[in-house]
Design brief:
This protein has helices spanning 4-14, 27-40, 42-56, 66-85, 95-117, 119-122, 124-129, 136-162, 174-199, 203-216, 224-233, 238-243, 247-259, 290-315, 319-322, and strands spanning 266-271, 278-282. The chain has 323 residues and is mainly α. The chain has one domain (28-322). A two-stranded antiparallel sheet has the order 1-2. The longest helix is centred in the middle third of the chain and has 27 residues, at 136-162.
Amino acid sequence: MTNPAQERATRLASLPFQTTEATSAQPVGAFLRSVKEIVAHRELLDLLIRRELKSRYKDSALGFLWSLVRPLTMLVIYFVFIGQILGAARGVPEFAIFVFAGLTLWGLFSEIIAGGTGSIVGNAGLIKKVYLPREIFPLAAVGSAVFNFGVQFVVLLGATIVLGQVPFSADLVYVPVGVIIVLIYGIALALLLSALNVYLRDIQYLVEVFILLFFWASPIVYSWSFVVDAAQRNGYLWLTEIYLWNPITVAMLAFQRGMWTAGSRDSVTGQNPDTGADIIAPAQPWPEDLNLRLFIAAVIGLVLVWIFQRVFSRLQGNFAQEI
C-alpha cells in the first residue's frame, strides 16, 4: 500500500522550482508589486511610526521637545567654537541661520540612516511572528525622522522671523527640492543597510563612521565659498567638482539657498583698483549648474532606490532565521 504522504512528497519534488518574485525576469514589475504591497499596509506603517515616536520619548517629561535638544546643543557648540572662536562666522553672514539650516537637514539624513540600519534587527520579534512587507520597518524609521525634521524646521522658520531673515523669495523652491533628494537617498540607503545589518552586525558601527565623514564632507558648518577659496588658493579647483559629486552636498546647498537669505544678498567685497568703485558680489557663490546637479542627483537616487529595494527583496528571505 502506497503512503499518501510519500506520494505527495514525490509529486511536489517533480514540480519545477519557482521563486516567489520574478526578480530577474521582471525587476520593474517586482518593484511595483512591492510598492503596492507597502501601500496596502499603509495603516500598519502609520502605527509603526507612532510606536517608534512614542517609545523614543516614553516616560519623559518633555516628550517631543527632546528632539530639539541635540540640534540646539550642536548649534551652540558650532556657533561658539567654530563660528566665533575659530572665526568661521566672519566670512558667513547670519552664521546662526546658516548653521541651523544645515543641522536641520543633516539631522533628517543622519536619523534616517541610523534608524533605518537597525530597523530590521530591532523588530526581530514581530518579523518572526507575522508576515508583512519587511520594507515597512526602514520606512517607519524614515517617517519618524521626517516628524522630527518637521519640528526642527518650525524652529528654523521661527529663528528666521526673529532675526528678520524670513525666506520669502523665488529661491524658496529650493527647500523642498533639497529635502526630497535627502529623502530619496535616505530611503535607498536605509533599505540597503537594514538588510546588510541582518547578516553583518558590524554595519551599524560602520554607519557611524560613514555619517561622521559625510557630515564634514558637506557644507554644514562651513560655507561653499570656503571650499572654492581653498581650492583656488592651492590650485586644486578640480577638487570642487569631486566635492559636488556628493548628493547630500548639492541637497544642502539647495536647502541653504532657500532658507539662508543672507547668502544670496549682494554685498561689497572690495574696490576696483582702477576705478575705485565698489565690487558687488553675492555673499555666497552658488554653483552655476546647481539646478542640473540637483536633477541628476534625483535621477540617480531614484535608480538607487530601485536597485537597493531589489537587493533588499533578495536578502529578506532569511531574515527570520538570521535574527
